[in-house]
Amino acid sequence: MRRLLHDEQLARVVLAGFLHDLPHQLTLIRQGLDRHDADALRIQAHTLRGASATVSAYRLQEIASAMEHTLSAGDLDGCAVLYGDARDAFDDFRMAVRDGGWV
Length: 103
Fold this sequence. Notes:
With 103 residues, the protein is an all-alpha fold. It is built from 4 helices and no strands. The protein has helices at residues 8-35, 38-54, 58-72, 76-99.
């Protein structure tokens, strides 16, 4: 909330956009894994990390960062495991946001 200058309306808009866009980002990661496309995966992991940081989805941000490091080491299998963790973290974040009445 501090990042948004305590503007609740703006926070709601940003959170709604994140919740709407993230399933597509996760789909792109899944597609990159299916194609064994490390370059595309690195880009998506970086995008995921930034988007997660913007809305303070810290667990998801940490997982995306771990994906970037794993991909830098050429470990696509490790990235696949982290992808599952990212899906779970997103589900948890989405529930917390909804339970908190933000969207």
